[in-house]
Amino acid sequence: MKSNTFKEYIQPTVVLVLICLVMTFALAYVNSITAPIIADNTVKAADAARAELLPAASSFEQYDGELLVLEPDKVYVTDCYIAKGIGMVVTVNTSSFGGILTEMIGIDADGAITGVKVTAHADTKGLGTKAHDSSHTQQYIGLTELTETSAKADPAITPVSGATISSNGVHYGVYAALEQFKEVGGVN
Q: Whole-prediction pTM value?
């Protein structure tokens, strides 16, 4: 029996390459349509979280000064929005059990915490995420200073038992936000 190289090898390869090219262009087209929508929704979600953390503010202005890096790739401020005369909301990335944890911290004009909200994480559901619940983060409200970067070592906070690393991640982020507030010099 005679082998037909074109039908056995070349034709299927050409068909697969064409399918890959068509799919690549289709995915690129869909991405060009959805990327701006996703970016807009991300901005809206961040604005809603800021309004939730600092409800007295009607508008926020992005701080364009120096953002703190307490530990490179582990604890650093990603953005800071100021509501003139009312307070600020600081977004911090910290190292947590599942990787990087992102949280937003509201601080009023007097330097007191108004709220803490974890917006992204990869911590273990159930146990590690207890450190993200409002029942845990409520204890930060009203504080103007944290003496330690570790939740376990700071007498102002009770860490979640069994979720020490996640508790420390949240705590260190709040600590960084308070330090950013001091660095900015308040909101007046």
A: 0.80
